[in-house]
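Quick note —
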Amino acid sequence: GWTYDRKYDAYQRKVPKGKDGPIKLWQLKTFPFDATRRTSSALILVLYADGKCRLWKTIKGSPDCISIIVDPTHEQWYNAQMRKLGGKGLRTIAMAATDVTSANDTFTTSLFPGGLPDITTASDEEFQEMIISAREKAGSLHRIDFEGFDNDWTAKSHPSFELVGFACFDAAVRPSTRRVVQELKAAQVNVIMLTGDGVDAAISVADTAGLFSNTDS
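Predicted structure written out below.
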């Protein structure tokens, strides 16, 4: 698993000898969860076992929000998965990422004018200086440009992220919820549900909780 390295302010893991893969990562810039945009994102520098680095933009959030910025090729499949997971009453978070290592990418050239750090050629001190400098420069990044869509959920450019997957959490109601809802209804109390989940998940939970009457379709 990943552990935090306080000395280098990075996360690291051990990889078996002869195996490739990421061994250390630095968060250069993070955008915390925003209730309006319903996303959180980060710019991450990843060091691989071969000593080379790659730069990744990562984002997670509401599936309907993430759908705006991921490759639309699999839009039909994506929407079907959202409905399927939501129909099970699962709270779902979509995760996406894109590799911006290319020397032509503006994020890479602005943060690392001389190219990404290479542990096989740079000294430990030089490597750390490049990380510190990149973090300082990343402070000027604008969230809308980074995530690729405006606050009104309008995509600013062609979708550039690739879907990584869905993280699902059980949003099951308490066993007593249905009984309580029925008692409130019997007392002529109007019961409503407020939720930040998707429509399909909300309908599933509301049905389980007994919010729908027999006449509701």
